[in-house]
Amino acid sequence: MENQKIKEILIDIKNTNIDFTVIQTGKESKRVNGFYKPDTHEIFLHNLNFKSDNQLVYTAIHEYTHHLITEEKSLIVPSGVIPNSKVHTQEFWAKFGELLNIAEEKHYYSLGLENAPELKALTEDIKTNYLAKNGELMQEFGKKLSQAYDLCKEADIRYEDYIDRILCLTRNTAKDLRKISSVNVNPAIGFDNMKIVASAKKGDERNNIEKEFLDGKKSPSTVREMMKQRASKSSEDDAKFRLEKEKNRLEKTINQLTQRLEYVEESLANL
Asked: How is the beta sheet containing 34-37 ordered, strand by strand?
């Protein structure tokens, strides 16, 4: 695949206002499949690492994600400062997943599980007999820990000491286990994703997050980023409501003070 074709595909997946260059190095690398240079906006692809255009496009999208994040960050950093967009943050993985979904919809990229029947069968085995069963086991584990918590209180034993030195669990793990056992979470999504669902405070929000996992196509990083954005928007809405409420209160106070000032001025004029 030619460099220009790769560039056209990337732009069609998501447009950018900053021009960039795609360069296939003609090399093989054991360290990386490609890299992005934010100062020159160049995407380098070690094309001899790939057996197919599908693999090439996947890596191109990965590096293009760095470019798009560089573009976003350039709007908020001081002029002349090159944003550090090379790190793989939760924001990065969420955007990368979003671009992959678009690439699949436009038939530029395909995971290809349907072409690997043995892997597809193994995937079903993993989901059913390991992810789901492990989730169920962790739920039961959490219930046992809640029972242990109550028994520790009855026996005047510090639960934290019991967790630390008897069960040799980290406190965060024990907390997560008890949390997933206290809410209704589908174990089919797996223990780690159950923790994400259980972290949501409202039941309808937990249901929506759980549905995202069950529907597939979204990584844990993508779901976490969605939760973060929703929380941020909710916080902004709350802040707006508080400011509007304060504005109304101040306007009412100003109106009352204005009336009082007029009364005082009239009283002074009559003296």
From this structure: 21-24, 42-45, 34-37
Work out the pLDDT band at 126, boundaries 50, 70, 90: very high
Q: What is the pTM of this model?
A: 0.75
Domain that holds residue 68: 3-111
Report the alpha-carbon distance of residue 267 to residue 271 in Å, rounded: 7
Q: Judge residue 3's burial from the number of C-beta atoms within 10 Å of its C-beta, 0-12 exposed, 13-18 middle, 19 or more buried.
A: middle
Burial of residue 45 (CB within 10 Å: 0-12, 13-18, 19+) is buried
Sign of CA dihedral 144, 150, 156, 160: positive
Do 106 and 129 fall into the same domain?
A: no
| CA 88, 64, 102, 17 torsion-angle sign | positive
Classify residue 2 by burial, with Cβ atoms within 10 Å: 0-12, 13-18, 19+. Answer: exposed
pLDDT digits (tens, 9 = 90+) for 3-39: 999 999 999 999 999 999 999 999 999 999 999 999 9
Torsion angle, alpha carbons of 169, 171, 172, 178, to 10 = 90
Q: Are residue 99 and residue 179 in the same domain, yes or no?
A: no
Q: In the chain, what is the greatest distance between 2 CA atoms, to the nearest angstrom?
A: 100
